[in-house]
Amino acid sequence: MKTREVVIAGNWKMYKTIEEAQSFIYELMAMGTNPTSSIYIAVPFTALSAASTAAKGSSIRVGAQNMHDATEGAYTGEISGKMLLDAGAQFVILGHSERRHLFGETNEFINRKVKAALKLGIRPILCIGETLQEREENKTENVLQNQLESCLSGISENELRKILIAYEPVWAIGTGRTASSEQAEEMHRFCRGLLSSKWGGEAAESISILYGGSVKPENTRALMEQKNIDGVLVGGASLTVDSFNKIINYQPINRY
Ligand code: PEP
Prior knowledge:
Elements lengths: L6 E5 L6 H14 L6 E5 L5 H7 L5 E4 L17 H6 L4 E4 L2 H7 L3 H14 L2 E6 L3 H5 L3 H12 L5 H4 L3 E4 L13 H19 L1 H6 L2 E4 L4 H8 L6 E4 L6 H8 L8
Parallel strand pairs: 1-2, 1-8, 2-3, 4-5, 5-6, 6-7, 7-8
Helix pairs in contact: 1-2, 7-9, 9-11, 11-12
Bound molecules: phosphoenolpyruvate (PEP).
Phosphoenolpyruvate binds next to strand 8.
């Protein structure tokens, strides 16, 4: 039995129209969800408002996949936390490896976004993770330490408790290659130790750390059995209701 909040989060990336998003949520709601997990779905900006309306009254939380740290301004193509809130977002994914690697986001920029989200009451899911090259060069712990310390710079203990961390090895995202549950657990333990050294053991023990990287119905249970893995962040397998629902119900539950 997990003592920390168990979070099953979907990241739809650049998939689904408004109508597809609504149908997905209605179907998922009709299936009944595991009452012991929190369900998060990060939808495209265009579907935020409709998806959050569709999910009203359910335990599904709808959120976004990115935001700018400024409240408003001349930032063509960007979106602010204030706008996300207006559209019904309850959380936001920040620092996803696709944002870091395809769009050049730095730890410093991500740190500003984390602070801006917290200020507005939008829960950040902060993503960290090493590339294959960094792993092969034995730099994984250095990379994770640097990402965690920089992205969480200036964050108070109280604020930390509102954040979800997602450890997502870049080499496992969208590749079909999952970290073994033991590899993932080792890194989760390392991250919790780091959080503990900066913010104290009590805060570190309360933080949910999710694993992401080719999570599927078949590997969810083994990952979730690990002591320091408190949830999963799911890309590809969150796109169909059937596979996402299987991940949510990774263990037999008593349906209500
Ligand atoms: C992700 O987008 O965060 C992710 C982990 O993707 P996938 O599950 O497809 O590897």
